[in-house]
Structure formats: C-alpha cells, structure tokens
Amino acid sequence: MPLNPEPGTAGYVGRFAPSPTGLLHAGSLVAALASWLDARANQGRWLVRIEDVDHPRCISGADTAILGQLAACGLLPDEPPVWQSQRSAPYETALQRLAAAGKVYPCACSRRDIELALAASGQTPDRHGERVYPGTCRDGLHGRIGRAWRLRTTGVGGMPMHITWQDRRLGSQQQDLSTEVGDFVLKRADGLWAYQLAVVVDDAAQGITHVVRGEDLADNTPRQIHLQRQLGLPSPRWLHTPLVLAGDGQKLSKQNGAQPLDLKEPLQALQKAAAALGLPPATATSLPDWLAESVQAWATLYPLPEQTVPPLVA
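That's the Glutamyl-Q tRNA(Asp) synthetase sequence above. Prediction below.
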C-alpha cells in the first residue's frame, strides 16, 4: 500500500487541522497520526489545514514549525496546506447566506451579560461548563448595537433542535442543541470568525469526507452538523480518538503546560502515539516500514462501514 497515494485515487478525504498557538505535543501527535492512518488505510487523501482564525493567540512561526514536525514523522499531506487566515471571503459568503435566510441574528451580549442573565434565571454553570446562551438578542437588539452573529438552534415553531450522530469509536451520540448549547456564535464581537463556521466551510470546500480528531472535540460535532444542514453542506463521517492525559488527569494541552515534541527520535514519538491509540506494537524498525505496518493495524482496529462517502444533505 503506497504511503502517499496520488490525489484523487479514492473517495476518502481526511485532514489534520492544528492551531498554531504552539508546537505539536504528545496529544496533538496522537490526533495527527490517527487521521493520517485512517486516510492511508482507506487509500484516501490526507490534507493539513492551519486553523489560525484566532490570530491573536497564534505564535509567529508555529505554523511552519508544525509542518516541519509532521514531515519529520513522515506525515506528509497530499496537497499544499491551507491557512484559514487567508479565507475570510468564503466565511463572509456563508454568513450572508444564513442571514438572508433568517438563520442568524446580530447579538450585543458580552460574556458578563450572559453570566448575569443565567444567574437571574437561577442557572449556575460549572466553571468550565457550557454557558447556554439565554436568547437575549434572538428577537431583536432593543436599541443595543449587535457586533457578534449567532446561529439559531431551534427547530420549526421553536421546537428543540435535537441532533443525533454516529461515531466510529464512541457509537451513537446525541445532543439537544437548544438546551445544552443555545444559539452559538459564528462571528465574534471582535470581528474574528468563530471556529465552528470556519471549520464547516473549509471541510466542505476541501471535500472532507472523514474527520478523525480527539475526543475532546466530540461535543462540537452536533453544532457542526446543524450548521452543515443550514448551509446545505455534506456531513462527514466522524471518529473521535482517545485523549492523552496530563499528570492531573486533565487533557494534555498547551494550556496546561504540554511540552513540544522532542523529535530527535521520531519513531519513538510515533510509537507512544500509537500506543495511546490502542494499536499493537509494530515490529518494524525503520520509519517508513513502521508507518506501513501501523496502517495495516489501523485498518483492522477501525474498519470503515460499507458506505464511506457521506451523501449531500438535502
């Protein structure tokens, strides 16, 4: 099986989409390796997208350094990488389509406003829990100035928006967007594009058919499915991988001090990532052979269902 097939040789298109707020660490390598293995196991294409819409948090040079880390591990994309910071025009087009259909509305609420509204209604979210938007601006700004844009999460006649989906590892999943998330932001008050809109527009533009990413992003999936449906875009297949945990039991991340990968020995870093994914130890000692052996192991661990390319949502 070729490790880097020619683009267009299969219907499968996957991607790895790091944010350049720092270099890859052990947890992000797990996500990168999983998405690469899934694409290669299914004779598909693997793309890399630099998700830098939140540019105040991005570190200069981290994007190219990440690409270098991936190359050192033999994880090479089949097309030139895409930078979200260069794609404002299609995001604006999508927002205007939603506005014309009455599916989004301007919002003047600050985080403090939302906290006060929730407290007034007797809600006390956990410190790191979801702040369900109370709908303050849903029916008008009432003289205030709207700077952010929110997507409605209620169905016909104000019915709750209940989303169900199937994950290849986690199984059947569901979420009531109306009560568990509320109307969510697509464009922030500071003018920056929100992750949800950018990722949905770009997945469609790049023809992504399968998303393989960390389990911490699973609760974003219903929001993205809802937005895909509102824009008439296809929904990919989903697979959310196990997380690498820090010493305190929390997800290993840049925010809690995860150290950049030491890639003096790329194979050792990959072996640790494969173990976190539940793959059996590969016997090969060279990087290309180890990757090829791991592709075969992945195909056994996470076989695709018969229908691999999702249909267009009506």
